[in-house]
Amino acid sequence: MLRRIFGIETEYGLSTGRRGLSPEELARELFRPVVEEYSSSNVFLPNASRLYLDVGAHPEVATAECDSISQLIAHERAGDEIVDNLARRAETALDTPLYLFKNNLDSVGNSYGCHENYLISRGTVLKTLGRQLLAFMVTRQIICGAGNIDGGFRFSQRAEQVWEGVSSATTRSRPIINTRDEPHADSSRYRRLHVIVGDSVMAEPTLALKIGSALLMLEMLEEGYPLPDWELADPIAAIRAVNKSATAPLELSDGTTLSALDIQSAFCEAAENWLAQRPEDDSLTAVVDLWRRTLEALVSGDYSGIDREVDWAIKYSLLNRYRERLDCGWEHPKLAQINLAYHDIRPGRGLARVLEAKGLIRRWSTEAEVRAAVEEPPQSTRARLRGDFLRRARQLGAPVTVDWLRLKVNRPEPQFIELGDPFAPCDERVEGLIAYMEEHYEHAEQ
Ligand SMILES: Nc1ncnc2c1ncn2[C@@H]1O[C@H](COP(=O)(O)OP(=O)(O)OP(=O)(O)O)[C@@H](O)[C@H]1O
Ligand SMILES: [Mg+2]
Questions:
Q1: DSSP letter for each residue of 386-427
Q2: Domain locations in the chain?
Q3: Which residues hold Mg(2+) (predicted)?
Q4: Mean pLDDT in each 10-residue stretch from start to end of the chain (446 residues)?
Q5: Cα–Cα distance between 312 and 211 in angstroms, integer?
Q6: Which residue of 62, 105, 158, 221 has the lowest C-beta tally within 10 Å?
Q7: Residues with catalytic roles
């Protein structure tokens, strides 16, 4: 499958400077306009994304279905803007600053996630694919980790928070790859691969690398391109070891050892060769270029070639400058503060956003693309149908219910359709549903 559907779910950490306000109270204030408009804190927006309040008072945005890296980046950034707009209103109402962090850990050690979803064909055996992908997923933190301080500098925020390799459980055992069968599409043709292990990232090139390298791995596996079949003896021990060192020896099931750097170098080289034979794609070329440069930086120890693109390297450079200035160890509270402030999503306040505005972190999207993605669904996938349907329903004040798969007009008679093909941006049946709404609710518009 060369064209693929994918989406990303981001949970945000929420806090305030004012004492005495519980996370639940903050979240309730944050979602007040959403609940007022939709009578629910679990909604689909006109840009076809899902906005909801998950357990633990973490707002979550799940982007609409995308089919290109640029589209996904614009929609992921649009998610930040949507929750930031809610936060700006809530902080006026509460008369206290509100902070939304796109990271994976709060100050008391609770972890929250950033999940990736990739469409795969039903013919692919998910368990086999998961097993083949595991060595890649365990070691990819050295290319696209967000960086962290935990007894020293670490590549990833999430590596310490997973407990199983491939499994169908989500919360109980927190696996790296989740095999729960919920395709949100025609289940006879498609499956959805749910990756739970990634860090939330701030720099757009890091997001491109994270998504693009996974897309390339999936392509190569599905197309039968020869790849090393490495099975880690203990994926969880390995993910913890990689977090501390790209060169730590990782034991394989056959008794040999390889480092994360060895494993990623082999996958990157395979991706370079694969790129030369698949149809040209500028985004994937840029992804593989950054992948290669990141591995080279790890070998040389000189991060200057990637420290405007790769989160962990940007953060490492920033923290290291402070460490030298303060002449302190990694445990210094000022460094912890920077480690957190990097993930504050507020433009002009969050460190990553400030660096980006100064040109010290490269962008992949443009402001105009993000602005458009706040309002408009991706135009090349099923998301467009959901977005158009929701926008018209809102204009007409028609009672509707939607999820990833279904569009429904609730009254006067329930009318619904299923969009089993997530690739399809056009469907006559949606026009039929819109006509039905117009017939019954047009008068309410005036
Ligand atoms: N057929 C599909 N293939 C791949 N990704 C999809 C498909 N349909 C939807 N998605 C993406 O999957 C994500 C689903 O997000 P959502 O938060 O609803 O996840 P979930 O796993 O269904 O549920 P929850 O987070 O509540 O456990 C979205 O980003 C969406 O764009
Ligand atoms: Mg979700």
A1: HHHHHHHHHHHT--EEE-SSEEEE-SSS-EEEE---TT----
A2: 6-372, 381-440
A3: 9, 52, 60
A4: 94 88 92 96 97 88 98 98 98 95 86 94 87 94 97 94 81 79 94 94 98 98 94 96 98 97 98 97 98 98 98 98 96 96 98 98 98 98 98 96 98 97 98 97 69
A5: 16
A6: 221
A7: 54
